[in-house]
Design a protein that fits this description.
elongated; alpha/beta; DNA polymerase, domain 1; 386 residues; 9-stranded mixed beta sheet; two-stranded parallel sheet; TIM Barrel
């Protein structure tokens, strides 16, 4: 295994996570010709190279020199789990030992990757398992982009006939359907409280010569950090999802404590002015269904009133239980009645089918196993076979 230090004992810089300008500046400082940055960009983000030796369009001398000073590091896979419904979850470990979870949800016409933006979370939403894990730190761009690259490694999705991705997965051939078509920043953490790093990562993801996932296929989910909603719309203009979960401030204050700082009316005002929102690009409102808390017909009617005039759709999420959860899921009848009221008012209100519940990969269930295992005095288990 190659050392992560140079011959002089200095740390090797990771090129994964550098945007175009930063990569170009790095190569200028390295004394390389400007076109080298374009070559590296292609190999890192389009071909998924994990070693400089795989970059066959570069001279061997230049590859060897790069390997002396740089690395192409992804998060390490501590654990990989597969659900009976095809959902896959990876526990990913970073250089400092911190871990997050990333989830791939396959569907008939798309595959969605749920990406984390922080280790832990600062919001303390009472229905969310991740919210019971205190915020440890923000993720860097390399750690956010790296989650997508690890998923592509595991799914054999890099467009290379020689298959340069990690984990021995079969390479994706020209014309194969992608398994990661959509990205949702809906994993661990509040992405708008790590906005600069998230934006830098998404610019790499959206680059048509890199990971090449359209901004129309990327959704950022926020609990309602109002000032940064406007900045997000102006600068990266990805799709917006709002974790609403209640229609009255007194209820939302309990479910989503951030509401005490940015109440519902202020949040909806930010949504109404979100750049690019239209009937073709509707804002999604996530609404977890909690028995006896927020699931009455009266609350469904109030939701319709609040959304009046907004290009919106509503995702109704049956509550996914986790050990020690203080809530129960609404009954099927209550969820159906709620959905019918919203549909009748002209808003799409599908009930999300829970995915990956058996591996705690469903919405609101993510919590890095590193925290759970360390509290018990144990280390994560070896990577199981899938």
């Amino acid at each position: 295994m190659m050392s992560n230090q140079t011959a002089r004992g200095e740390p090797r810089r990771n090129l994964v996570g550098l945007g175009r300008e930063a990569l170009a500046a790095e190569m200028i400082g390295f004394g390389a010709e400007p076109f080298r940055a374009r070559q590296l960009w292609h190999w890192i983000y389009h071909r998924g190279a994990t070693e400089f030796g795989q970059m066959t369009s570069l001279s061997k001398a230049f590859r060897d020199r790069l390997a002396e000073h740089y690395e192409l590091s992804r998060p390490a896979v501590s654990q990989a789990l597969a659900s009976v419904d095809g959902t896959r979850k990876w526990l990913l470990r970073f250089a400092d030992g911190q871990e997050v979870e990333t989830v791939h949800i396959p569907e008939e016409e798309r595959g969605t990757l749920c990406v984390s933006s922080q280790v832990g979370c600062t919001l303390n939403c009472t229905f969310c398992h991740t919210g019971t894990q205190a915020l440890v730190r923000n993720l860097e761009p390399a750690e956010i982009v790296g989650q997508i690259m690890v998923a592509r490694d595991a799914l054999g999705e890099w467009p290379s006939p020689s298959g340069v991705g990690a984990n021995g997965a079969a390479p994706n051939r020209a014309g194969d359907d992608r398994q990661v078509t959509n990205i949702v920043l809906m994993g661990m953490g509040e992405p708008l409280y790590n906005y600069d790093n998230v934006a830098a990562a998404m610019k790499i993801v959206m680059d048509p010569e890199g990971l090449s996932i359209s901004r129309r296929k990327i959704t950022l989910s926020t609990a309602g950090v109002v000032p940064l909603i406007r900045r997000c719309g102006a600068e990266i203009a990805v799709n917006l999802a709002i974790s609403l979960h209640a229609v009255r401030d007194e209820v939302r204050d309990q479910l989503v404590p951030l509401n005490r700082k940015y109440p519902i009316a202020e949040l909806l005002d930010a949504c109404r002015t979100y750049p690019g929102s239209s009937n073709a690009r509707r804002i999604t409102f996530e609404y977890v269904m909690l028995k006896g808390v927020n699931d009455s017909p009266a609350e469904a009617r109030e939701l319709v009133r609040l959304l009046a005039g907004l290009p919106a759709k509503v995702n109704l999420i049956p509550f996914n239980p986790w050990p020690g959860a203080p809530y129960e899921c609404s009954t099927e009848a209550a969820i159906a009645a709620f959905s019918d009221i919203v549909f009748a008012a002209g808003y799409s209100a599908p009930v999300r089918t829970p995915r990956g519940r058996d591996i705690l990969a469903a919405c609101g269930q993510l919590k890095s196993a590193s925290v759970k295992l360390r509290r018990s005095g144990r280390e994560p288990a070896p990577l199981p076979a899938l």
